[in-house]
Amino acid sequence: MFATIANLLVKRVLTAIPILLVVSALHFCILRILPVDPAAMSLPPNATVQEIEAMRTEMGLDRPLYEQYGIWLNQLLHGDIGRSIHFRQDVTSLIGGTLPATIELAVIAMMVATVFGLAGGLFLFYVRGTRAEAVMDFISILLLSLPEFLWSLFLLLIFGVFFEILPFTGRLSPGFERPVVTGFLLIDSLVTGNISTFFNALEHMILPCLALGIALSPSLMRVLRSSLLDAYQDDYIQQARLRGLSEKRILIRHGLKNAILPTLSLMGVQFGFLFGGTLLVEIIYSYPGMGNLMVDAIRNADLPIIQGAGLTYCIAVLVISIVVDSLYLILNPKLRMR
């Protein structure tokens, strides 16, 4: 099994290289087509035409597009994504400072979506053929129709403004000092023993994670319910009943084991979209992650940050895809026989 997984990882990594090259080239070329002059934006408003032209030459913007891309790609291979036009900092440090916050948000939100999705899918399957099925089906479709930013506003107004139960801005309340070890606030607070900081950070993540998780869970519910219905049409379910197994054991040992595979694939796809779709939620909750950084970059036409963030999202999606494929291979013995 480990050899099969290793082969899969090698194939996926080799496939990821041309994908990254194509994505990086598209990002670079599309951003250069925009009517934005990075040289002029990197200088004060009162800069002369001569100073702007000198900066264009220094940045290599006077060269052909393919040469510019070659220079940028060479810098990228050496770990230099570029320097922010607006923040006057290295893009690597800016992304490194905000990426852990988005990863934490996406991971916990995916955990919330998984719990709600699996529990809701099992309940939808349990009430099949009853009057409650139509009600639950209507509720799941209603939940599926509401995007995450509406859930964000709804939860913020109810639990943050009206009842004032949970905080809804930033990552920490005033007075709490942020420990810096790995960049992941929850991990760093535990490593340094700051339990109060850990729970305060967790409180700040409840509302945005709930908003993202609730928005994703209905599709998991419906896919799991459909997969269980398909699995219960197979002969092995009837044979398990003939052997006298209880319905609970049939569901857990046979039905759920096979129905979880399509759900796992959907979770991988959703997690990829979730990682890149936290932007609006981060803005609503003033959460200092990649989403807020991207908004600032777009507002200020900061091309180096936009390029770096786009490439980071691409790498994250590829990594998630590799992890999901590996889990799929572990859970499905038939694939290991190929």
TrEMBL record:
Q: Which Pfam families match?
A: BPD_transp_1 (PF00528), BPD_transp_1_N (PF19300)
Membrane spanning segments where?
12-34, 105-129, 149-168, 180-199, 259-285, 305-331
Q: How does it sit in the membrane?
A: Multi-pass membrane protein
Per UniProt, the keywords (alphabetical) are: Cell membrane, Membrane, Transmembrane, Transmembrane helix, Transport
InterPro entries for the chain = BPD_transp_1_N, MetI-like, MetI-like_sf
Looking at the record, the residues that make up the ABC transmembrane type-1 domain are 99-324
**Where does this one sit in the cell?**
Cell membrane
Q: Does the keyword Transmembrane helix apply?
A: yes
The similarity annotation says:
Belongs to the binding-protein-dependent transport system permease family.
Query: What is the protein name given in its UniProt record?
Result: ABC transporter permease
Its organism's taxonomic lineage begins at: Bacteria, Pseudomonadati, Pseudomonadota, Alphaproteobacteria, Hyphomicrobiales
